[in-house]
Amino acid sequence: MEGLTFNEENHEYKLNGLIIPSVTQIISGAGLVNFDYIDEETLREKAELGKKVHTTTELYDKDSLDIKSLHPILRNYLNSWINFKKDYGFLPLEIEETFYHKDYNVIGCVDRIGFIGKDKSIVDLKHGIKLKSHAIQTAGYKLIHNYKKSKGNMAKKRFCVYLTEKGYKVEENKEQTDEAVFLAALTIYNYKRSK
Predict the structure, then answer these.
(1) Tens digit of each residue's pLDDT (9 = 90 or more) over 101-118
(2) What does the alpha-carbon distance between residue 112 and residue 92 come to, in Å, rounded to a whole number?
(3) Rounded to whole angstroms, how far apart are CA atoms 141 and 40?
């Protein structure tokens, strides 16, 4: 997208110099996620592991991973991802793609988009515990992905794939109200920013 920049350290998107809130920032900024009860060092370690797992699976899906040099822990997470893909017949069509919804002024990077069965689906990779906000996150991703797309090109389903060193668990996000909750979070986020 022309004029788009991303500052990884601040996890901040800018479009032509203006900050564009991401799906995850909106959910957090509206108060739907709170990690105040977890010490900073643990949060940092978990975030670092999450980045490494995401990078590992991304490079693998793009056929550019040197598996031989991979740390055994990351290899276990990768094996969990490989097993999910095999078990579900999942072939990613889009990998770590950024989408922007101009009307809502929301941006986000969707982990994977591909078919599960006959349905084009949003797949969000996770490496920690399941949170209620994950379903709201995938609703936000579906909203920005489907923006101005024809009906045949829209994602229909949403999934979170929770990867561990020993396997994976799949959670389909089916609640029809998830998008409404995301839009309510966006309203709260914008209200708080305007003060």
Answers:
(1) 999 999 999 999 999 999
(2) 6
(3) 27
CATH number of 4-194: 3.90.320
Residue 55's contacts (CB-CB under 8 Å, 6 or more residues apart) are: none
140 vs 148: CA distance, rounded Å: 15
pLDDT exceeds 70 at position 181: yes
> Whole-angstrom Cα distance, residue 17 to residue 19?
7
Tell me: pLDDT of 157 over 90.
yes
CA angle, residues 72, 59, 140, in degrees to nearest 5? 110
CA dihedral in degrees (13, 31, 156, 161; nearest 10)? 90
Q: How many residues does the chain have?
A: 195
Give the pair of three-digit tokens for residue 2: 């022309």
3-state secondary structure of 93: strand
H helix and E strand count, the chain: 5, 8
Give the largest Cα separation in the chain, rounded: 52
Identify the pLDDT of residue 195. 66
What are the structural domain ranges in the chain? 4-194
pLDDT tens across 16-34, in order?
888 899 999 999 999 998 7
